[in-house]
Design a protein that fits this description.
- The complex is a heterodimer of chains A (116) and B (116).
- Chain A has 116 residues and is mainly beta.
- Helices cover 0% and strands 50% of the residues of chain A.
- In chain A, strands 2, 5, 6, 10, 11 and 12 form a six-stranded mixed sheet that branches.
- Chain A is globular, with a radius of gyration of 14 Å.
- Chain B is built from no helices and ten strands.
- In chain B, strand 6 and strand 7 form a beta hairpin.
- The radius of gyration of chain B is 13 Å and the shape is globular.
- The relative contact order of chain B is 0.33.
- The chains are: A mainly beta (116), B mainly beta (116).
- Chains A and B meet through strand 5, strand 6 and strand 10 of A and strand 5, strand 8 and strand 9 of B.
Chain lengths: 116, 116
């Protein structure tokens, strides 16, 4: 069975600084995909970044990067140069063959607050 | 519209009543998902539709929950005889691929259901 763990219910960061949101996962599948989604107060989940288990390099998307450590089964999200608009709930998620390619397993989320 | 549209955005109902939640996916997207998000929790998979295939109903919590997708587009999630524990945000998502580890989902803003 797949499991995603986010151990930080809440995080604070000063505007313009970098922040790392933790995510660990558990799966017995050799092939899987890892995602991060952002959920602002409006409620809509917004895709941020994707990392495949066989990808050789860490994924990057603008100010977002994924620190993928396969041996440790961690997929931390790094946000550089935080902005006030980054304040939101952040969810780590995984899809793997055993969970079926159609289902995403989500973590419980981290509430990020960016301070001015 | 350009994104996934859900209605109503808020629904307050009395215990025991039936409710219908609507989702209008992005045009051309063949895959459609329903998720439930309870307060402070991650997303719980409910049901998945892919084209004309039989839906994956493995996440529905009880037989009071059902969903249909007419014409491969709009979907309705029905909760019969609502209970207070059904109170949650119900999120709909769609995607174009329907399968694959890197499948990216596009979410609506959700329906906040409150059962009194």
């Amino acid at each position: 069975a797949q499991k995603i763990t986010q151990t930080q219910p809440g995080m604070f960061v000063q505007e313009k600084e970098a922040v790392t949101l933790d995510c660990t996962y558990d799966t017995s599948d050799p092939s899987y995909g890892l995602f991060w989604y952002k959920q602002p107060s409006s409620g809509e989940m917004i895709f941020l970044i994707y990392q495949g288990s066989y990808d050789q390099q860490n994924a990057t998307e603008g100010r977002y990067s994924l620190n993928f450590q396969k041996a440790r089964k961690s997929a931390n999200l790094v946000i550089s140069a935080s902005q006030l608009g980054d304040s939101a709930m952040y969810f780590c998620a995984m899809r793997g063959p055993s969970g079926s390619a159609r289902q995403l397993t989500f973590g419980s989320g981290t509430q990020l607050t960016v301070l001015p | 519209g350009a994104g996934v549209s859900q209605s109503p955005s808020n629904k307050v109902t009395e215990k025991g009543k039936d409710v219908e939640l609507r989702c209008d996916p992005i045009s051309g997207h063949t895959a459609l998902y329903w998720y439930r998000q309870s307060l402070g929790q991650g997303l719980e998979f409910l049901i998945y539709f892919q084209g004309n295939s039989a839906p994956d109903k493995s996440g529905l919590p009880s037989d009071r929950f059902s969903a249909e997708r007419t014409g491969g587009s709009v979907s309705t999630l029905t909760i019969q005889r609502t209970q207070q524990e059904d109170s949650a945000v119900y999120l709909c998502a769609s995607s174009s691929q329907g399968s694959g580890l890197n499948e990216k989902l596009f979410f609506g803003s959700g329906t906040q259901l409150s059962v009194l």
